[in-house]
Amino acid sequence: MGRVTERRRTLRIRDGAVTTRPDTLVAEEPLEIRLNGRPLAITMRTPGDDFALAAGFLVSEGVLGEGSEVQSIVYCAGATAGGVNTYNVVDVKLAPGVVVPDITLERNVYTTSSCGLCGKASLDAVRTTTRHPVADTPPVRVTPGLLSGLPDRLREAQRVFDRTGGLHAAALFSEAGELLDIREDVGRHNAVDKLVGRALTDDRLPLSRAILLVSGRASFELAQKAVMAGIPMLAAVSAPSSLAVDLAVETGLTLVGFLRGPSMNVYAGEHRIALKAPAGEG
């Protein structure tokens, strides 16, 4: 809807000199996601790719697994008294025959808290509900050298970040290092949902030969989204959480953290990292 950025007056102080000028900021607005007309969740996001965001969110929740399961995604009347369409409410209508899950308060807490029902129940829930088990994907092996070059390529592709300095990014790369898609958003989880949702509507799920790279840390929620989309490898430029590591071990996801130049930590799924044999071996 063209509201990715907004302008605000700012007071600039540089080396004692004071000026006023407009600054470009990333837009942040709420998006209510409805499923067959019923409210499901609200997320704060950067407007744009809202339909993909909603579809990707439903993939991560186990509602959707194929593009054919979506009948329509539309904007509907907003929250204003006059019923004006604010483009902040999206309704996803499932195709006939697709089972609508029970939408409970517990489910909503789980999906929006980023830690949710933390513990063994959460790990089991993701492992048993994904339609695209990562452990069953074709073998994907990448070298540390290939991984080391991906953060710079992600940063170079962040067009809105260059104007605002206030956006996270998520990108999909092929196992050969080709940039397949990139999305930016004020929330890392939203950026991933936009990637996954686009893949769903393009009938590209599961993403069984893709590498997901995120610009910040790797939380349980991001690992969950990778597993639900069938992505075998998640890499982050910062640290993972302990529960993200537990989920990666539980599901077979390759999890790489602190990916900065030639340095990185592999927390799980090291069988997908093609290492050179130490000198004297082989």
TrEMBL record:
Mind telling me which GO cellular component terms the entry cites? cytoplasm
| Location(s) in or outside the cell | Cytoplasm
* Keywords tagged on the record: Cytoplasm, Molybdenum cofactor biosynthesis, Transferase
Q: Which GO terms describe its biological process?
A: Mo-molybdopterin cofactor biosynthetic process
Question: Domain of life here?
Answer: Bacteria
Q: What is its main location?
A: cytoplasm
Q: Which InterPro entries match?
A: Cytidine_deaminase-like (IPR016193), FdhD (IPR003786)
Q: Which GO terms describe its molecular function?
A: sulfur carrier activity; sulfurtransferase activity
Q: Which residues form the active site?
A: C115
What is the similarity comment for this entry?
A: Belongs to the FdhD family.
Q: What does this protein do?
A: Required for formate dehydrogenase (FDH) activity. Acts as a sulfur carrier protein that transfers sulfur from IscS to the molybdenum cofactor prior to its insertion into FDH.
Name used for this protein in its record: Sulfur carrier protein FdhD
Q: Please name the source species.
A: Streptomyces fulvorobeus
